Amino acid sequence: MINPVTDLPSTPLPRFATARAIAQAVRAGHRSAVSVIQDTFSNMRAVDPALNCVTHMLEQDALEQAARIDCARQAGAPLPPLAGVPFGVKDLFDIAGHVTTAGSKVLRHAPCARQDAAIVQRLKAAGAIPVAKLNMDEFAYGFATDNAHYGVTRNPHDPTRMAGGSSGGSAAAVAAGVLPFTLGSDTNGSIRVPAALCGTWGIKPTFGRLPRDGAYPFSASLDVVGSFAGTLDDLIDTFHIMDGVASDDAPAEPDAASLRVARLGGWFASSLSPALTTLIEQVCTRLNVTQTVDLPHTASARAASFLITAAEGGNLHLPRLRQQADDYDPATRDRFLAGAMLASSTYLQAQRFRSWFHARIHQIFEQVDVLIAPAVMCEAPLLDDPTILVDGKPVAARANLGLYTQPLTLAGVPVLAAPLLQTHTLPLGLQLVAAPGQESALFSIARKLEREGVLGTMPIPTPEYA
């Protein structure tokens, strides 16, 4: 593995350099922010043709921001914590002066954004530099990042396999080591699924905790914005900045030994690959987990999440569908139309069930602090054979990769997507789940498991596209 702390001052920016190491080098004057951004674009141009993570490069804007950071350092001004750190955004976040296409040619002639999305503003104020917009499923409706307009994003661990979605470009860019962190969104698993398939860290925060201003909506009552990172430290550091909290004021993480941890069973223990079953058991052994919890009516929770998403997304797009239906990806168009035609009574029933389910999962968190669950049941499916096994039968991956993520969406709880080590195969991932507002408990458990060599970013073999 590259040691970015020692490599940064004297060599071109290595892939897999961490945000912490880049900011340290820029603040210390060992590297200019401009050189970091120039090398980042060089790395993207070398790697992206094989993976298709990037839809739009923001080169001029990025170099101008980097030059301002270098001028500030030369003038002796103190630099912010992420000075010179490049990042990418899923192409549903506004970047001032650029069109937000949300992965669709439907919006290609829309006006340019007048200002950056709220969390982009917070990151830029901390010195981070947006360098690219990243591929996604059209309007975030999917788990594959198979986009009719911008193409398929491929998995850096094996480009014949899916990266997952809908934030697949964001996950793959981190997994390929070209960006230390990226932004994504999660409605039914759009951060957690690609994080698991690509072997990166990801965070779906508590519903409503991070501002969604300037992020193109999908399902207003479920959408959450979050991020991916190559290291747990980078994920936590950037989360606090997006949360509007200075590093010195970040809430203390509880002692992992004091946290009550249980495993989700039932629905979340079925259809797992043998390798994932073994690894989850190892995690439970390391944490001395003996309790298994079953969520009530999990199948109904998944169905309710699906119905709410379909109805809200369909009605959001219905006016434009009446005018530009042929510009949509046919698969996206048909799902939006079906959602728009759902009876209002069906939508209201799903929301009533949501309230009931929300109360039940909060009762569980009166007895447990953190829950362990799989993120996806298996390794990334092949692009040429996009199926997975559910109950022993092959089913379409695109419709079923969210089997374990969709039910948890309904409760609005924070979920940390954590990459497992020692898979002896392609990446596999966990969901660590806590009560609303308790992200710090997730970070604490993840740190413990990382120290013990159970969790961590899975290195990729030297690929042909390197």
From TrEMBL:
Residue stretches making up the Amidase domain: 36-442
Protein name: Amidase
InterPro entries in UniProt: Amidase, Amidase_dom, AS_sf, Carboxybiuret_hydro_AtzE
Pfam families hit by this protein: Amidase
Signal peptide range: none
Organism (species): Acetobacter peroxydans
GO MF entry, a single one: catalytic activity
SUPFAM superfamilies hit by this protein: Amidase signature (AS) enzymes
Residue stretches spanning the membrane: none
Gene3D superfamilies named in the record: Amidase signature (AS) domain
NCBIfam families (alphabetical): amido_AtzE, PRK09201.1
Gene transcribed to yield this protein: gatA_1
